[in-house]
Design brief:
The protein is built from 13 helices and 34 strands. By secondary structure, the chain is an alpha+beta fold. It is elongated, with a radius of gyration of 33 Å. Helix 10 (560-576) runs antiparallel to helix 11 (582-603).
Length: 661
């Protein structure tokens, strides 16, 4: 059973870490050996007839045991006048321990093999070991100079068929590498003491990581504490890690991400880099409770997004996602303290300035991870981007050095392909926003009332609508599987951050295939609307949609019912309002649409939603400064028709509800 780089199985959480202002915590973890453990040695065929020559031998080593056998040995004895001398080496991936951890206690545990845990009274001696390759032990790893001279524990006989525990001293504790692999050498006490063993078998034998399951594997048990610190930018990961704790990350890493159909894979561990980056940004600002009063973490955030139209085919709807960090108002709008101020920015000058600016927060994107990966840029200092990476959690900057012992470190070569920039502001309702996501072999083209275009136009990309942007290549890759998602269509993302009135949208086919279109709108009153459409496109096909930001209505162009309503509005504008100016005509049409919206909600029994929109309707009456008597009367007639009184609700002339006495 191949278990390359197998680590961390058990985590005992004694005190949770609280982000922003961390409290001291103590954790105990068990880290199992990876398949790079093994032995290397010389046998009688090397014809080393003196102890000193055998111990310092640097010739060709013919006996290595790597990842194909179940047991390892350390041996020192003589056969037919020639020495046999085996030395063991066990690497452990201890990068799962936070860099600022203070190691308190460490034990190394070896399970004695069969009835031969120790032979001839030999004891196991634990030291450091430097090897060429963590994954595979090689002949030159035998050299005595590669093994430390300081013993990490009292040598001990290995008891057969059970674990023998070695309590590591301060030197052994210092051998724990918090950013990579900790390698321990295992030799006999004769080898460590430089004592000729004489004849007769003298060996210690233990099960390797290749033995099926984990019941007999070598493991470290490590107890450590996290000192009291003020963490301005807490690190959270999408995968199992100590950030913020082993127990917490294990709780969400395997959760189904979105609807499970994202190109990157089906779990938060595979796809959750964007949502985890947003979690870090929120917690850096002291936001620890979501709008649903849940703890702000990737698992709860993902669940809320699933329930609140926060994904389009696995792509995060950014503006919807920000609602999770806000507080809900009585009319079901949400006050949000963080806004997306700039989308799809590629200017390194702008990204550097935003990363180092107070009140601005950067979620960067790099294709150095095949398929693409999001992470937080927490600062820009002395030509270095400071990183909080939800996957490569030991990465400190975008230009880190990766060595053979590095674990979860990524060198991005200082490359940021693009970034989303967020800003902290006084909590307020998000209004007048359009966000469109398209998973398809097609492109998006949006046109406003002034015939300005953003999106795909004549084979290129333009962004002529004010406060708009278009991203043709949004994706998330799976760092564990570099090929995942590379042969699929990228998500296209079109945003208008200061939208008003009505827009026409086209889905322009470039190839044949199905598509999923998701449109998010925050109307003029701050209500959230989401429209999803699934269709099939082909080269040259154009599907058209209408987006009305004032009412929040989104529909395919050509919808009979709504087109007839539009025609009726136009007729009434022409026949009944010929003396009105163009502005009054638009107000008349807008208010009539809101009445239609309220009536359709009442027809469907959506009384709470209708109630909220009645209040919005009255706000519009006040804002547009129109004759209220006609519209109050029309609203009263609709409410009476649907007998709202039976629900125990009445509406006064200001649109406020009151209960019957």
């Amino acid at each position: 059973m191949n278990k390359n780089f197998k680590f961390l199985i058990v985590a005992v959480l004694l005190l949770l870490i609280t982000p922003k202002f961390s409290e001291a915590s103590t954790q105990t973890i068990i880290v199992y050996a990876g398949s790079g453990d093994g032995q290397v040695g010389i046998g009688e065929t090397e014809n080393q007839t003196t102890w000193s020559d055998a111990r310092s031998y640097e010739g060709i080593v013919t006996y290595t045991l790597q990842d194909t056998e179940n047991t390892n040995s350390a041996r020192s004895d003589v056969v037919s006048g020639s020495y046999r001398l085996y030395r063991g080496s066990i690497p452990f991936d201890t990068s799962v321990i936070p860099d600022d951890a203070e190691i308190e206690n460490v034990t190394l545990n070896l399970y004695g093999q069969g009835n031969n845990g120790s032979q001839g009274g030999a004891k196991a001696c634990i030291t450091s070991h430097v090897r060429q390759d963590i994954a595979d032990i090689v002949g030159s790893d035998y050299h005595i100079d590669n093994f430390g001279t300081i013993e990490f524990s009292v040598p001990s006989i290995l008891t057969s068929n059970q674990y023998t525990t070695f309590h590591l001293n301060n030197a052994g504790i210092s051998n724990i590498n918090l950013s990579g692999n900790s390698v321990f050498g295992v030799r006999t006490n004769y080898d460590c003491d430089d004592t000729d063993p004489g004849s007769g078998v003298k060996a210690v034998n233990w099960y390797s990581s290749e033995y099926e399951g984990n019941d007999f594997d070598p493991y470290l048990e490590i107890e450590y504490t996290i000192p009291d610190t003020e963490d301005e930018y807490p690190l959270y990961t999408q995968i199992e890690s100590p950030y913020p704790s082993l127990a917490e990350t294990a709780g969400w890493a395997d959760d189904t991400y979105a609807s499970g159909d994202a190109y990157c894979g089906g779990t938060i561990a595979k796809c959750g880099c964007a949502i985890t980056s947003l979690v870090m940004m929120a917690r850096a600002n002291g936001i620890t409770k979501g709008v649903d009063d849940s703890d702000v973490n990737p698992g709860n955030f993902n669940s809320w997004l699933i329930d609140n139209k926060g994904y389009t085919h696995g792509a995060v709807n950014w503006t919807t996602a920000l609602q999770y960090f806000g507080t809900e108002n009585e009319d079901e709008t949400i006050n949000v303290p963080i806004k997306l101020s700039k989308h799809n920015q590629s200017s390194t000058t702008l990204i550097k300035a935003s990363a180092s600016s107070e009140g601005e927060y950067v979620v960067g994107f790099s294709t150095k991870v095949p398929g693409g990966h999001y992470f937080v840029i927490s600062d820009y200092i002395e030509d270095d981007y400071i990183v909080r990476d939800p996957w490569y959690y030991n990465t400190k900057t975008l230009d880190d050095v990766v060595s053979s012992t590095s674990v979860k470190v990524k060198d991005y070569d200082n490359v940021i392909n693009k970034a989303n920039i967020f800003s902290l502001n006084d909590p307020k309702v998000l209004t007048g926003v359009i966000e469109i996501a398209l998973a398809s072999p097609a492109e998006l083209r949006l046109e406003d009332k002034d015939e300005k275009i953003t999106g795909y136009d004549s084979g290129g990309v333009v962004a002529n609508i004010p406060s708009s942007s278009y991203d043709q290549n949004e994706s998330i890759g799976d760092p564990d599987d570099p090929e995942a998602g590379l042969n699929t269509h990228y998500v296209k993302r079109l945003m208008v951050l200061e939208a008003s009135e009505k827009y026409g949208l086209e889905v322009v086919g470039l190839d044949t295939g199905p598509y999923t279109l998701g449109i998010t709108v925050f109307d003029v009153a701050g209500h959230h609307h989401y429209f999803e459409y699934k269709g099939v496109t082909y080269e040259g096909k154009v599907d058209r949609f209408v987006i009305d930001v004032e009412t929040g209505e989104i529909r395919p162009k050509g919808d009979d019912e709504d087109d007839e309503n539009d025609d009726d509005d136009d007729e009434e504008d022409d026949d009944g309002d010929r003396d009105r100016g163009d502005k009054d005509k638009r107000h008349h049409k807008l208010l009539k649409k809101w009445l239609g919206k309220i009536e359709r909600e009442l027809q469907k029994g959506k009384y709470r939603q209708a109630k909220a929109h009645v209040r919005t309707f009255h706000k519009l009456l006040k804002a547009k400064k129109v004759d209220g008597d006609y519209w109050h009367s029309a609203l009263h007639e609709i409410l009476s028709d649907y007998e709202i009184e039976k629900k125990g609700e009445r509406y006064d002339e200001r649109g406020k509800s009151r209960r019957d006495d």
